[in-house]
Amino acid sequence: MAANLPTHAQVQGGIGVTEPGHDVHEHHDEHHEQSFLQKYIFSTDHKVIAKQFLITGIFWAILGGTLSSLFRLQLGWPESTLEWLSPFLGKWIEAGKLNPEFYLALVTMHGTIMVFFVLTAGLSGTFSNFLIPLQIGARDMASGFMNMLSYWFFFLSSVVMFLSLFLETGPAAAGWTIYPPLSALPQAIPGSGMGMTMWLVSMALFIVSQLLGGVNYITTVINLRTQGMSMSKLPLTIWSFFLTAVLGLLSFPVLFSAALLLIFDRSFGTSFFLSDIYIAGQALPNTGGSPILFQHLFWFLGHPEVYIVIMPAMGMVSEIMATNARKPIFGYRAMIGSLLGISLLSFVVWAHHMFVTGMNPFLGSVFMFLTLIIAVPSAVKTFNWLATLWRGNIRFTTAMLFSIGFVSLFIAGGLTGIVLGNAALDIQMHNTYFVVAHFHLVMGSSAFFGLWAGVYHWFPKMFGRMMDEKLGYVHFWLTFLGVYLVFLPMHYVGIAGFPRRYYSWTGFDTFSQFANLNKFISVAAILAFFAQFVFIFNFFYSIFRGRRASENPWRSTTLEWTTPVVPGHGNWPGAIPAVHRWPYDYSKPGAADDFIPQHVPYSQTQSSNLPYEREME
């Protein structure tokens, strides 16, 4: 009797999961018809939850881009009237000018939205949810209920952050890094009041969401891989999602503790981050605290956060490049090693954000050395991507174009990171537009390119239809050119000392010579933002009217393309396929086709088997 039992039976979110070769248990959710709420709103299906993260992320991206367009208007034409915006912004337009405190709020909310709500939740939440079970051969996440909770905590966090935009005193206005004392004193400026409190509450909810998701991703990858799917056969997407979840699980609690201590300082009279503060000549009773302590706590998350944002994009770009170059990914094990190296080193470089805080120069040199060392695994990935493209039979799909664009931006932004990683140079560049240009290229724009590449590539599996490739090309070229036209000139003005976060630069004769360049940057930024509506139209139109997709339109090797065109709850209608080979068997000499899926046994590909593969089956 024991021999007839499944060797790896799992129950995930109410769904029986069996190994290949065993009888398939009937799915519990097929016993009754699901209501609309159960199927689309409070769903425990990882694919539906992924779409929820994606749609919410698109909303936040539109809002974040709108905010950046507003402050670029101010920076490009600081002396012009913006009275025409008063119907939308109300009292934040004063005598035809943007309120200076509201300008700081715009910068704060733009950074918060893009870093956390779009590039963390929107990117990782979407693709980790969607691809992990499909690519490792699982029916669903380890806990469907916990997965559902992770989205709804994110949604609740989004609601709180969005409502803060409509407060009488305005949203949080201390920069997205919310440094005290500005964020710790409710009476400092209007944006330090209720808006900052709601920011902290929203971020606490957001962190809970990320921790719930991260535990689920890690557990699923470790425990629920199908038969034959060893860690050495995982696609690089899964490696990147797995290590991203580990980073989040270790670093987000530190930001949670910083936010909690900041709430204590704001509301309960403690002095974790406050000391020797004077307001209008009156000394506050706070003593003993240090705002530098907050910076350490924030950046201990803040630098791993850079890789929490970029590593999922790295994994997806690796997958898309191998598929569309029709070549095995170059240096598979080196790519995994570089991901591990980046994950480890990302925890020991945080203080390069703090070279100007008066730290001991020796300590600064240690962080500088570690910062420059982290360029090595990043370079390994870059050279391996270029080697994958070399002499490949490249198909220039929209996803492939965005993947190549990702590599271009990652190289450009990474080179400027070497400049900022040098403490002597960083002290001169700190808080200039050089820093803004650097992180928008290497983290912001390149991560967005990875996100778009992923959407274009896996859209057929998400919705069963194809996105329009011609509109995709328009979207790519407008965005690619727009990004470089915005951020390359920023490096130039940053080297000249042009300061970031300044409401207006017209009071400085030194910077008046950059007036036309600032207008150029603003025009390019606004046009690049409006180019995203090409994508938004293409995305939503294709969901309903796009050309119907085949089961494996890109002729890929990984397991998600063995499911039906639009997988149901449980992913595979029958037994889950077993895995026999690594995920990148493209253009193998002697093979009948230019790709061999992971689930095809070596016994069926005798003509293309390598000597060691002939002994495997």
UniProtKB/TrEMBL annotation:
Chain positions covered by the region annotation Disordered: 1-28
TM ranges: 53-75, 102-132, 153-179, 199-224, 236-264, 297-318, 330-350, 362-380, 401-425, 437-459, 471-492, 520-541
Record GO cellular component, one term: membrane
Gene Ontology biological process: aerobic respiration; electron transport coupled proton transport; respiratory electron transport chain
Location of the protein in the cell: Membrane
Classification via PROSITE patterns: COX1, COX1_CUB
MF terms in GO: cytochrome-c oxidase activity; heme binding
Statement: the UniProt record of this protein carries the keyword Nuclease: no
Pfam families for this protein: COX1
UniProt entry keywords in alphabetical sequence: Electron transport, Heme, Iron, Membrane, Metal-binding, Respiratory chain, Transmembrane, Transmembrane helix, Transport
Cytochrome oxidase subunit I profile domain residues: 36-580
Gene3D superfamilies assigned to the protein according to its UniProt record, in alphabetical order: Cytochrome c oxidase-like, subunit I domain
SUPFAM superfamilies named among the record's database cross-references: Cytochrome c oxidase subunit I-like
The name this protein goes by in its record: Cytochrome c oxidase subunit 1
